[in-house]
């Protein structure tokens, strides 16, 4: 989508044309505006300094006290053990029963957990495994939670930079990162050794790569037009140069990152068609802005091969993450001779390994489609943004708190003020996006839809679901909030040049809008601080813990 406020003819008009380069052909000012991207050279030092401050806040919140609560909480009992098996053997292994583990999620997220166990040590009382760290030995909890804390911190960094590029504002980019850093839901996932924070990170990274790809392609067209390209010419004559330096490298990188995301959880697949559609819409937009006569046809013909190449890279990356299982012989379903009751397995070299991997995937898919057992903390997709049923990762009545009864809980709860802003922000983003024909609104809404809407379909089958399934959508929900804050703080450009706005009125509106946006971020920070004890398991008097259960039984 392009901005309606700059939608003008691509044909040069002497009165509105900037001089081009040595080719002697001018580029219309309107076209130049439509193809403009962020100039990273402007304010680079200040932007990185502000980014560093936000990331430092996120890191402190995620790493301080990471070893508490002690022991394995919630699904750490599965993923921490599987992660150590991957580091030790290359595939998941049950050390208590001394046999391969049957797992239903790909290995990459567990590899990322296992890196921390390799570095800082691992211990499991059930199987008697206790190994020191290769870098230093700390508490075992720090080892298996380290990877999640790193992933959570990196996702804040990515969101700051993505927000800055999308909104062309360091302030708004930092606001997006700060809101994510102060989200209790994100904080809990960043301090727990389960898979969803890694899925969030890799999906966000793939989106960021596509935003960089969009900018690179627009700069490519702008250079070509300034160099004298006539976009109305048919075939290659009307297109920019296509040497290897002009390949969509960031798009190919997004394919690799999506392959990595799928190697954490298969639910990353829902973003593949959404992101492919974004690429196609952006390519149509740049051609329409440049004056191409048939932008849709040319975009499909030019970009479909690159999208297919990115898909191939995604598949190759996914299979590569199973290399430990493929190169070993003791993994679950790896050799047919170990599973004579499954005639579909094969012992043929190389091809047999891939056949067995396919059979393994079929078995895991069958498990997921039949996952309908009731659970105390299960919830439905329409409850997630309303915080209708958060998940308790840890609960204990032990500890000293200076009161007759105490409570310690780690509750997967989004910061309420932030999460209860998501639905109004989505509605406002849709309205503003349609009114302004703003590509940013479309990108945010489509990404949120990819992260949430598929689960509504599975809800029709009664599948057991939990609120942490929404994790990949959270950064895009935060971007929706910041998009609206930006609209409040910075008024839309005025296109009626016959009646220019009063500079004082513009200044006053920006001042008031900035105060409103700043006050909102401050209130989110205060709300986060109030609920912080139940995000990290701090021991509280029971009355203080109960006071934070705003929705009573729904949060207990």
UniProtKB/TrEMBL annotation:
The cross-references to InterPro entries, in alphabetical order and at most eight, read: ArnT-like_N (IPR003342), PMT-like (IPR027005), PMT_4TMC (IPR032421)
Q: What's its EC? A: 2.4.1.-
According to the UniProt record, what class of enzyme is this? transferase
* Transmembrane portions of the chain: 47-68, 142-160, 167-187, 193-212, 270-286, 306-325, 417-434, 441-460, 466-490, 511-532
Report how it sits in the membrane. Multi-pass membrane protein
Where is the protein situated, by its record's location annotation? Cell membrane; Endomembrane system
Where's the ArnT-like N-terminal domain?
Answer: 54-282
An example Pfam family from this entry, by short name, is: PMT_4TMC
Q: Where is the composition biased (Polar residues)?
A: 1-15
Signal peptide per UniProt: none
Keywords of the record, alphabetical order, are: Cell membrane, Glycosyltransferase, Membrane, Transferase, Transmembrane, Transmembrane helix
Please give the chief subcellular localization of this protein: membrane
Q: Where is the Protein O-mannosyl-transferase C-terminal four TM domain?
A: 356-552
Q: Where is this region: Disordered?
A: 1-26
Pathway(s) where this gene product acts: Protein modification; protein glycosylation
Domain of life where this protein originates: Bacteria
Q: Which family does it belong to?
A: Belongs to the glycosyltransferase 39 family.
Function of the protein: Protein O-mannosyltransferase that catalyzes the transfer of a single mannose residue from a polyprenol phospho-mannosyl lipidic donor to the hydroxyl group of selected serine and threonine residues in acceptor proteins.
Q: What is this protein called?
A: Polyprenol-phosphate-mannose--protein mannosyltransferase
Lineage at the top is: Bacteria, Bacillati, Actinomycetota, Actinomycetes, Micromonosporales
């Amino acid at each position: 989508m392009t901005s309606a406020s700059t939608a003008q003819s691509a044909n040069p008009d002497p009165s509105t044309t900037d001089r081009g380069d040595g080719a002697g052909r001018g580029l219309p000012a309107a076209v130049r505006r439509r193809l403009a991207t962020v100039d990273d050279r402007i304010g680079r030092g200040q932007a990185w300094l502000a980014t560093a401050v936000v990331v430092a806040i996120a890191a402190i919140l995620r790493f301080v006290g990471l070893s508490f609560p002690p022991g394995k909480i919630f699904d750490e009992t599965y993923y921490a053990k599987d992660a150590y098996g991957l580091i030790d053997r290359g595939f998941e292994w049950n050390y208590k029963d001394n046999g391969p583990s049957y797992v239903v999620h790909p290995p990459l997220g567990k590899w990322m957990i296992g890196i921390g166990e390799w570095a800082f040590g691992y211990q499991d009382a059930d199987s008697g495994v206790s190994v020191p760290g290769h870098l230093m030995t700390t508490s075992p909890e720090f080892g298996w939670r380290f990877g999640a804390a790193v992933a959570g911190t990196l996702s804040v960094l990515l969101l700051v930079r993505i927000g800055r590029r999308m909104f062309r504002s360091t302030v708004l980019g930092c606001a997006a990162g700060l809101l994510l850093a102060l989200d209790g839901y994100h904080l809990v996932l960043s301090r727990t050794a389960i898979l969803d924070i890694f899925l969030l990170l890799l999906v966000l990274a793939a989106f960021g790569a596509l935003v960089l790809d969009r900018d690179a392609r627009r700069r490519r067209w702008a250079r070509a037009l300034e160099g004298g390209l006539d976009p109305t010419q048919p075939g290659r004559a009307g297109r920019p140069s296509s040497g290897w330096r002009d390949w969509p490298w960031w798009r190919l990188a997004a394919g690799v990152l999506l392959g990595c995301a799928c190697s954490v959880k298969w639910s990353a697949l829902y973003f593949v068609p959404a992101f492919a559609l974004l690429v196609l819409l952006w390519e149509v937009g740049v051609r329409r802005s440049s004056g191409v006569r048939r932008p849709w046809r040319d975009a499909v013909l030019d970009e479909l091969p690159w999208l297919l190449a990115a898909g191939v890279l995604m598949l190759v990356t996914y299979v590569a993450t199973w290399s430990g299982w493929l190169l070993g012989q003791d993994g679950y379903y790896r050799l047919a001779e170990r599973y004579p009751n499954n005639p579909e397995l094969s012992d043929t070299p190389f091809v047999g390994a891939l056949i067995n991997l396919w059979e393994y995937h079929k078995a895991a898919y069958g498990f997921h489609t039949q996952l309908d057992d009731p659970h105390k903390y299960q919830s439905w997709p329409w409850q997630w943004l309303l915080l209708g049923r958060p998940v308790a990762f840890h609960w204990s009545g032990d500890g000293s708190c200076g009161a007759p009864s105490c409570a310690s809980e780690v509750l997967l709860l989004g910061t309420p003020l932030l999460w209860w802003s998501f639905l109004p922000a989505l509605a406002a983003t849709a309205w503003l996006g349609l009114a302004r024909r703003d590509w940013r609104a479309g990108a945010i809404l489509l990404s949120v839809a990819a992260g949430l809407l598929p689960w509504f379909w599975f809800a029709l089958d009664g599948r057991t679901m939990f609120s942490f399934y929404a994790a990949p959508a959270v950064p895009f929900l935060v971007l929706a909030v910041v998009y609206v804050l930006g609209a409040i703080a910075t008024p839309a450009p005025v296109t009626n040049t016959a009646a220019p706005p009063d500079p004082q009125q513009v200044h006053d509106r920006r001042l008031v809008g900035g105060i409103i946006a700043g006050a909102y971020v401050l209130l989110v920070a205060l709300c986060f601080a109030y609920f912080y004890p139940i995000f990290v398991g701090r021991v509280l008097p029971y009355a203080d813990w109960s006071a934070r259960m705003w929705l009573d039984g729904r949060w207990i």
